[in-house]
Specification:
Blueprint (H helix, E strand, L loop, with lengths): L9 E7 L3 H4 L1 H6 L4 H9 L5 E7 L9 H5 L3 E5 L9 H12 L4 E5 L6 H7 L6 E13 L13 E11 L9 E8 L4 E10 L2 E6 L12 H14 L24
Parallel strand pairs: 1-2, 1-3, 3-4, 4-9
Antiparallel strand pairs: 5-6, 5-7, 7-8, 8-9
Helix pairs in contact: 5-6
Length: about 250
C-alpha cells in the first residue's frame, strides 16, 4: 500500500530503454553510464530520495512485481523502442499509478511511450525538429512545488524542438511553457491526476545533448519526484457497503 509518511525517503526507480547509449558513440560520449545514471546521480545526492535504476534489457524490463511494489515514483525515458515494451509490464505500471498511487514522471520522447498514451487516452503526437535550437523554458505556475528554486525562466543552449499542437488532454496543471529559437512554443511541463496517481510530463532531454546535467533540469526532476510521491491519506474502498448509521426504514 503506497501511503508514505513525510519523514520517509521517496523510493524512485529511473527507467531507461538504454539503447542509444550502447549503439550511438556520440550519445555514449555524453552519457557513458546511460541517461538513467545521469538522472540517478543527482537524485542520489538528495537526502530525501532513494534511487534504483532499471532498463529495457532486464527481465520484465527491470519492472517486476517486487520492484514496482517498492517504487513510489517511476521516471520513464524511452525513444527508439516504445514497441518493445511488454504490454504486460505496461498494464502493471498503469495499475500501480491509477489504483495504488505510484507517481510517474515521463521525460522527453517518453510522450510516445505505451504507458503515457494509455494514461492520456490520446495519440500524444506533436511537431518536432532536431536542429540544436535554444530552448527557453518559462515558469507559468511560479507557486507550484515543481517550480521551487527556479527563476522566471531558464534556457538550454541546444535542444530538439517540440511544437504544438501536442495531442494530450488539457493538463490539470501547467507548470512550464517552452519557446524555441525557430519560433515554436510547447507545453513542456504538464501535470495530470489519474485515479490515485500523479503524472508529470517534462519535455527537455534529447539524447544527443547533455540536458540531464543541467542544474535547472535536474532540480525540476527532483521537485517532480517530491510532487508525484504518494501522500498519506485514506484508502478508498468500492462496492456494496453496510450503512454507517441505523436506517430508519425497512430494507427491501
Amino acid at each position: 500500500m503506497l501511503l508514505r509518511a513525510s519523514v520517509q525517503k521517496v523510493r524512485v526507480t529511473v527507467w531507461n530503454e538504454y539503447i542509444h547509449e550502447r549503439e550511438n558513440p556520440e550519445v555514449a560520449r555524453i552519457y557513458p553510464k546511460g541517461i538513467h545514471e545521469a538522472i540517478a546521480e543527482y537524485l542520489r545526492q538528495q537526502p530525501d530520495i532513494e534511487v534504483r535504476v532499471a532498463t529495457l534489457q532486464e527481465p520484465e524490463h527491470g519492472l517486476g512485481d517486487q520492484v514496482l511494489e517498492r517504487t513510489d515514483v517511476l521516471i520513464w525515458w524511452g525513444h527508439a523502442a516504445h514497441d518493445k515494451v511488454s504490454d504486460k509490464v505496461v498494464e502493471k505500471v498503469y495499475r500501480r499509478v491509477v489504483e495504488e498511487g505510484m507517481g510517474l514522471i515521463v521525460l522527453h520522447s517518453g510522450h510516445y511511450s505505451k504507458i503515457f498514451r494509455r494514461l492520456m487516452g490520446t495519440s500524444c503526437s506533436l511537431k518536432w525538429r532536431e536542429a540544436g535550437e535554444r530552448e527557453r523554458v518559462w515558469v507559468v505556475a511560479p507557486w507550484h512545488p515543481i517550480a521551487r528554486g527556479l527563476g522566471e525562466y531558464f534556457e538550454l543552449e541546444h535542444e530538439e524542438m517540440y511544437g504544438e499542437f501536442f495531442d494530450i488532454p488539457q493538463p490539470d496543471e501547467l507548470v512550464f511553457i517552452s519557446w524555441f529559437e525557430g519560433g515554436e512554443v510547447f507545453r513542456s511541463g504538464c501535470c495530470f491526476y489519474r485515479g490515485r496517481g500523479r503524472i508529470f510530463y517534462f519535455r527537455p532531454g534529447h539524447e544527443t545533448y547533455p540536458t540531464y546535467y543541467n542544474e535547472n533540469v535536474r532540480k525540476v526532476i527532483a521537485n517532480g519526484v517530491r510532487w508525484a510521491a504518494p501522500v498519506c491519506g485514506p484508502r478508498p474502498y468500492y462496492g456494496n457497503v453496510e450503512p454507517l448509521e441505523k436506517l430508519g426504514h425497512k430494507q427491501l
